[in-house]
Amino acid sequence: MKKQKGISYKTKGWMIVLLLPITITIYILAIIGWQQLVKIPVVQEWAEIINSSTAKLDVPTEYIELYKKAEDNYGVPWTLLAAHHRIETRFSTMDPLLSPAGAEGHLQFMPCTFVGWSHPSCGGLGKGDIPEKDKISPAIIEQYGGYGVDANNDGKADPYDLEDAIFSAANYLAASGAADGEIEKAVFNYNHSEKYVEDVLHFYHLYESQVKNLQAAAYSSQ
């Protein structure tokens, strides 16, 4: 009985060479087919539900209520406040909450922005030479037109108090146009850096998307 010969290595090599273009073509057609398929409304809903079921909001839950309270007061999207908080101090995990340039607190305010640029010591980058007691005085802040807010009514507007800092950021962003939908302009006004704007908007859009997906998942489960 003769022993059957297997396919030679040379033949296998030619088979791979011949099949490779076919495989690549099928792969490309599959991608194009999916791109066309996802344009169908029913398929879009199906894909969104799948994405929503695994959605997770990457914001510490203990801060969300404060963001939403500030949104109610100033009309600034709470997801934008969360994005600023993330970029400025990594949700207050930066230690200390003081930058080399002199920005202070949970949302990194320059003292002159917090207290007011009309303060006689203010100029340059805004570090100023403001007495510590005046930095947290609502009366002094009102006098010099600053953005610091006493959100918890304890008699102090303190950038190192989380609630005060979030409300102050919302106040500043609202005055810069965020409450009227001018998000990019407001973010740039907060920090005159294109990279900063890009980073904040990245997280803002991410959180907006995650919230939408979570809402869709909750709705689909009803």
From TrEMBL:
Gene3D superfamilies: 1.10.530.10. GO terms for molecular function: peptidoglycan lytic transglycosylase activity. Keywords: Membrane, Transmembrane, Transmembrane helix. GO terms for biological process: peptidoglycan catabolic process. It comes from the Bacteria. InterPro entries: Lysozyme-like_dom_sf, MltB-like. The keyword Membrane applies. The chain crosses the membrane at residues 12-34. PANTHER family: LYTIC MUREIN TRANSGLYCOSYLASE, MEMBRANE-BOUND LYTIC MUREIN TRANSGLYCOSYLASE B. This is Transglycosylase SLT domain-containing protein.
